[in-house]
Write a structure and sequence with these properties.
The complex is a heterodimer of chains A (54) and B (248).
Chain A (H helix, E strand, L loop, with lengths): L10 H43 L1
Chain B lengths: L15 H32 L13 H28 L2 H33 L7 H22 L3 H15 L2 H11 L20 H44 L1
The chains are: A mainly alpha (54), B mainly alpha (248).
Chain lengths: 54, 248
């Protein structure tokens, strides 16, 4: 299998498009995971507080 | 988010346990499938030959078209979830709507940006106000409007209702985006994928990377959508617990 990474005169368009795609995916993944982690921890903290009060 | 009995602050989901149990394994599973497919898709992308007309810019097709397809598909999900939230007042449906809006906005912005980067060398311009590009820009504005409306109103139920109505109104833009290249003259090419006429379909050497990358995007969306819904379920649980503690 031959890979062609040389975009020649179009490199100035092709590589920014791939870089932008990677950046958007990195944002979507990190933002989603961080949000889930943050609220899960908060809910668990409050649940633990509630159970400690019982 | 939907009507709920104020005496039962935790009664905000029809069946949160079942959803959380399902999404706990489904989200990482879709994520793993997306990663594998993206890897295979990238291999096929850079193994594909240059196009005789478009040269190496043809590789942008494999990241641009799936983003554009997802921008429409995610909005359809937003519309359906908003309808269910509005009519049946289903809290999980409302969470599903809120969760997919930022992802849809990201896919739409990505489609516009990669399309612009593809358009400059092929059309000689970054942007034209033709029907396809303009209707996709309108789609992005619907996503942003939905998100702005959700955060602008303090009353969550009012915000959910107003945003759901806006999302439903925006559904009318989907066929306009899809058929814009057939209804009006456009620089943008017509469909060359699944529903295209046989003479317009992509050859296998381009169709395979396109299919694999499209499935990778779809799986990634499925995974991230579930993760974001989970975050919203946790958030509502945290707020309900905080309210209980404030009251008690």
């Amino acid at each position: 299998m031959h890979f062609d990474f040389d975009a020649g005169k179009y490199a100035v368009y092709v590589w920014p498009a791939f870089a932008l795609t990677a950046a958007v995916f990195v944002w979507m993944i990190t933002d989603s995971l961080a949000s889930a982690r943050r609220w899960r921890r908060e809910a668990e903290r409050l649940q633990a507080l509630k159970e400690a009060k019982k | 988010m939907g009507a709920r009995d104020p005496h039962h602050p935790l009664d905000f989901l029809t069946n949160p346990e079942r959803f959380m149990a399902f999404s706990r394994w489904a989200a990482p599973m879709f994520g793993a499938i997306a990663a594998v497919l993206a890897l295979i898709g990238l291999v096929l992308t850079f193994a594909a030959p240059e196009d005789y007309q478009q040269g190496d810019t043809v590789r942008m097709m494999f990241i641009h078209v799936p983003a554009a397809s997802l921008s429409l598909f995610v909005y359809l999900c937003l519309g359906i979830a908003s309808f269910l939230a509005l009519v049946f007042r289903h809290a999980l449906a409302d969470a599903a709507a809120v969760a997919c809006a930022p992802l849809g906005a990201a896919f739409t912005a990505l489609a516009l940006a990669t399309g612009s980067l593809w358009g400059k060398p092929m059309w000689g311009t970054w942007w034209v106000w033709d029907a396809r590009l303009t209707s996709v820009l309108v789609l992005l504005l619907f996503y942003l409007g939905y998100l702005a409306l959700r955060s602008a109103l303090e009353d969550e139920q009012k915000a959910a209702r107003a945003a759901a109505i806006l999302a439903l109104v925006g559904l009318i833009n989907l066929p306009i985006v899809k058929f814009s290249v057939e209804w009006w003259n456009s620089l943008h090419q017509g469909s060359s994928t699944l529903f295209a006429k046989p003479e317009n379909r992509l050859p296998a050497v381009y169709a395979w990377p396109m299919l694999v990358m499209s499935l990778a995007y779809l799986s990634a969306f499925g995974s991230l959508w579930l993760v974001r819904i989970r975050a919203l379920v946790w958030r509502r649980k945290a707020r309900a617990l905080a309210l209980q503690q404030a009251e008690g």
